[in-house]
Amino acid sequence: MNIPVARRSWVLALVVGVGLFGAGCSKDGESGHAGGGGHAHEAKNGGQLVEVGEHQFNFEILPDPAAGKLTAWVLDAHAEGYVRIAAPMIQVRATVDGQEKVLVLAAVANAASGEKVGDTSQFEGSAEWLKTAKAFSGKITGVNLGGKDFGDVAFEVKAAK
User: Fold this and answer.
1) What would the pLDDT profile of 125-148 be if each residue is shown by its tens digit?
2) CA pair distance 143, 117, nearest whole angstrom
3) Which are the contacts of 56, defined by CB distance < 8 A and separation ≥ 6?
4) Smallest Cα–Cα separation from 73: which of 1, 133, 122, 143?
């Protein structure tokens, strides 16, 4: 079958366009992204993932009620690698039982990974209310990731099952 050159170019452009449109983040066996993007990623530390930007980064949020501690890690778009940032701390504004609480998560150094304050992916903070809060909503306020400023990054901590 002989297809005219102009028509072949149009068909090729259509095939490439469809391929690019569907070439977003698609990993085998994944469904239901943390931000609703059609697939999911696994949290590295057993916490919950919170998408930042349009599939640019993730925060992994892990409450430890027994210790009254909240840990957050900065992860890449697929939650596979840690992303070190220069911030000495990040701030969380949480709403617990209708009351606003402010929690500062300080940068954590890790000798095993070579991370240090000012070049780390892990942040931790403690508060008494974390020991009794079964669930709460929060916002990580104004954070710079990869040279880009992100406003409030909202998340929900759900009660343990």
Assistant:
1) 999 999 999 899 999 999 999 999
2) 16
3) 77, 145, 146, 148
4) 122
C-alpha–C-alpha distance, residues 125 and 36, integer Å: 28
Pick from 46, 41, 72, 71: nearest CA to 56:
41
> If you write DSSP's letter for every residue of 91-136 in order, what string do you get?
EEEEEETTEEEEEEEEE--BTTTTBBTTBBSEEEEE-THHHH-S-E
Average pLDDT, the chain: 81
DSSP 68-79: TEEEEEEEETTS
Q: In the CATH hierarchy, which top-level class contains the domain 46-157?
A: mainly beta
Residue 55 backbone class (left: φ over 0; alpha: ψ -120 to 50; beta: rest): left
Q: What three-state secondary structure class fits 33?
A: coil
Instruction: Please give the Cα distance from 161 to 150 (Å, whole number).
Output: 31
Q: Domain segments of the chain: what residues?
A: 46-157
Tell which residue, 55, 113, 124, has the closest CA to residue 90. Answer: 124
